[in-house]
Amino acid sequence: MSTTSSTLTTTAAQAVASYGYVPFMLIGLNGAALALTAAGAPKYWLLVVLVVAIATSFLVERIIPYDRDWNHDRADTTRDRIHVAVNETLILASVAAIPLLAAVVPAPQLWPHNWPFVVQVLAAILIADLGITVVHLASHKIGVLWRFHAVHHSITRFYGLNGLMKHPLHQTVEMAAGVAPLILIGLPVDVASVLALAVAIQLLLQHSNADYRIGPAKYVLALNEGHRFHHLKWAGIGDVNFGLFTLVWDHLLRTYSYDPTRRFDSTQLGMAAKPDYPNGYLQQMIYPFTPGGGCTLTPTATASTNEAQRTGSSDPGSKYRC
């Protein structure tokens, strides 16, 4: 193959990835999950869809990387895979437990079973999005929650698997806030199963190291362009863009932030107050329970104030990560 042909092929692949990645994940794979579940397919097919989503994420991050350095291991790949395995297992277990929960806490059967299945799933996503967003915001304001949420914010590279790099206790609290209201009104297991997959796909997209294009949708959907601002390391500056699926609640809560001129790199990610946050999986499980697992704002006060001035933020870190 000539150099010209190779260049054209690469350019074509990049164009397809840039504009096709998000529709494929959001519409294609979630659509496949909807179709399989509605047809009564065994639930393990949803795991197959998840594997396809993860594989697609890794492939696209190499075709159109936002930052090529973020594709390289930093002694964190194995740890992140453990996070994914543990947290996905917990999500699957929670879905499997729904019939038991329904038996223990009888629901009033308010769920709209007569709605089209796709509408039921979309309604579940919107309700879960609100609950998860509220707990996410609270986790940046309440010290005991931040201790566990800090595990997620310790990352210094931004790629798909980061989405499920969470302390299992914090993930449990977040998911409970999102799903408990649904269970209390009779959430069906089939809807919960598709919702669980949608959450995983969304987290892959939201933390993706892919320079994809979504146009004006970036102001509404909680994808990577907006979520990078949430991972800025300075106290107070990252208190933005809390939504999991949408940015609707952030617009309403005035926590939305976006600057199209901003370029991110690893020096801006992580936690300025704790640059030496533990990197190993077991260490990250234990650290929130230790005296040092809280936060300290004093070392980052100057940096936070400077960053606030640069971005025009009115909060240089008076209440963040403490």
How would you describe this structure to a colleague?
The protein contains twelve helices and no strands. The protein is an all-alpha fold and 322 residues long. The chain has helices spanning 3-38, 44-63, 77-96, 98-104, 117-139, 143-153, 168-184, 189-206, 224-230, 248-253, 281-286, 301-311. α1 runs antiparallel to α8. It has one domain (15-311).
Helix and strand layout, with pairings?
Blueprint lengths: L2 H36 L5 H20 L13 H20 L1 H7 L12 H23 L3 H11 L14 H17 L4 H18 L17 H7 L17 H6 L27 H6 L14 H11 L11
Subcellular location: Membrane
Protein name: Fatty acid hydroxylase domain-containing protein
GO molecular function, one term: oxidoreductase activity
What is the share of helical residues? 55-70%
Which regions are unreliable across 5 or more consecutive residues at pLDDT < 50?
297-305, 311-322
Number of extended strands: 0
Approximate shape: globular
H/E element order: HHHHHHHHHHHH
Distance between the termini: 57 Å
Cα radius of gyration in angstroms? 20 Å
Number of helices: 12
